[in-house]
Amino acid sequence: MAAPISRSGSEPGAAPYGNFPNYSRFHPPEGRINLLPQGLLRSLFPAATRPLLGLDVGCNSGELSVALYQHLLGLQDSSSSPEPPGADKELKLLCCDIDPELIRRAQQSSPFPASISFASLDIMDSGAREPFLSSFLQRFGRSSFDIGFCMSVTMWIHLNHGDRGLLEFLALLASLCTFLLVEPQPWRCYRAAARRLRRLGRDDFEHFRSLRINGDMAESITRILTQECAMELVCSFGSTSWDRSLLLFRSTTARPQGSD
User: Fold this and answer.
1) How far apart are the C-alpha atoms of 102 and 107, rounded to whole Å?
2) Nearest-CA neighbor of 151 among 16, 34, 215, 55?
3) Helix, strand or coil for residue 236?
4) Does an H or E element contain 97, and which?
5) How far apart are CA 238 and CA 219, in angstroms?
6) Inter-axis angle of helices 217-228 and 154-176, to 10 degrees?
7) Which of 156, 212, 239, 241 lies most in the core, judged by the most C-beta atoms within 10 Å?
8) pTM beyond 0.85
């Protein structure tokens, strides 16, 4: 994936990689957080080695990453609250985005720098991705993440890398994570993104008109992960007010929780 196109204004079409400058204003974190049950992390990993390791792909400027961290650890929902002692030993969250400016904002505003790391990374660039992720995991003597988050990212991978790119992306996440929380964009969002680009006088997404994986994207992504990526659907937590499903998957080949 190429470097992000420079953005002017807040028109979403000016961010063809999903790197919207004010994303959380129109899709606020609480829209997802309120769907997730309390105590989710402990129910998934009741006896796992700590710290648990999480990977958030396409984290934008970090508001949702911070909200997920707070919710998973049962922390007070306030960015001004200090991190409780020992919280950094419970969960380490690595968050990446293709846009370095969004990452700079995330780093500057994060209330939990000891536990949440933000880094600029093109997840589809294997030459950059593999040494970066390996270096992070090796710090903890691990070879995989306990849980991954892919929140409204699949469409941008799909539009910019085509069907093959989407398949490779999902296979990558499945290989990296024991559990995976996915929020797929529905097909109508693809059409809307393409319209916005055309309205701005830009070239259409290279792969949009040739995508054979289309229609019900939540169903398609579930099928790919369960039939081709050795994962099983654990739970659907319902849909956000903007009509996107939150789907939790689990690897069927992962070793027991907390071991590597």
Assistant:
1) 9
2) 55
3) strand
4) strand 91-97
5) 14
6) 20
7) 156
8) yes
Structure tokens at 174: 């499945």
Residue in 219, 214, 248 with CA at minimum distance from that of residue 234: 248
Residues of the chain with pLDDT under 50: 1-10, 12-13, 257-260
* Ramachandran class of 57: left when φ > 0, alpha when ψ lies in -120 to 50, beta otherwise: beta
pLDDT tens-place string over residues 79-91: 555 666 666 689 9
Residue 104, classed as helix, strand or coil, is helix
Q: Record the tokens describing residue 153, joined without a space.
A: 């990212």
Q: What gap in Å lies between CA 54 and CA 68, rounded to an integer?
A: 10
What is residue 14's predicted lDDT score, i.e. its pLDDT? 59
- Identify each DSSP E strand in 115-190 by its residue range: 116-120, 145-151, 177-183
Structure-token pair, residue 42: 């402990």
Q: Are 72 and 107 in contact (CB under 8 A)?
A: no
Residue 28 is predicted with a pLDDT of: 92
pLDDT of residue 85: 65
